[in-house]
């Protein structure tokens, strides 16, 4: 059925393209008939000549249509390929088609050159940022040692450690953002205890929990999942960081629902406005809370969403303004 439709479509398009030649052919036959009448040629001779010319004309147009149809099918097959390669092979029938082919080839080469230049520039930038992130960790570590050795006041130490932790977290976010495009290449799937991954993420934020006097309610559970530990930890750390950032007092609770294979991280923070809730996972979206807090980048939850999708984890949020927010991670039942 599709082949017949394609054939009819090609026939219509061919007739549009060849209508001048067809009209010219008909005019030539008409002129011959008119001349034969004027010169009183034999009717049998005229009819024979008209039949021969008509037959030759039909054969010519049929051959041209077959070539037109085959070229259309060839080009459609090339267009439908997942990967199209432009080869310097001339498949045109005339000078104009050759000129168009050369023009397309030139545009392709220009685009390819521009893409190569952009890719090279992006790689140079990525290499620089990777180097910068790794280098910046050295002074952070040195400052941490100085704080522990030189400052004796406990409150001051906690404040210094909190700010150092933020610096380290932001540099880690830069590093993960650079890796996000080649995310799957970095995955290493193994069986892990989800409770241990969560516990380590909480422990990493212990300085901020202590400094802000926020209680953490971590209910123990026994669940093993197939995942990438590093990237799942990244998701949990970003969620905890957001919860701590917008929770001035109260608690943060973490629990696992075995029936739904769902991890819930809830806080008693400032909550999220209902009109912002559907957009919090969009890139660079900060919403009302972000506008009131100038340090918000809108990248944390965006990166969480990207990584979660790659790990086949559903992530969504529920929130009530001025009461708190719950982030839910639902794991694939076949991986739990």
UniProtKB/TrEMBL annotation:
One of its GO terms (biological process) is cellular response to phosphate starvation. Its main location: membrane. The gene is graS_3. InterPro entries: BphY/WalK/GraS-like (IPR050351), HATPase_C_sf (IPR036890), HATPase_dom (IPR003594), His_kinase_dom (IPR005467). One of its GO terms (cellular component) is plasma membrane. It comes from Clostridium ragsdalei P11. It catalyses: ATP + protein L-histidine = ADP + protein N-phospho-L-histidine. PROSITE patterns: HIS_KIN. This is histidine kinase. The chain crosses the membrane at residues 21-39, 45-63. It is an enzyme of class 2 (transferase). It is found in: Cell membrane. Its EC number is 2.7.13.3. It is a multi-pass membrane protein.
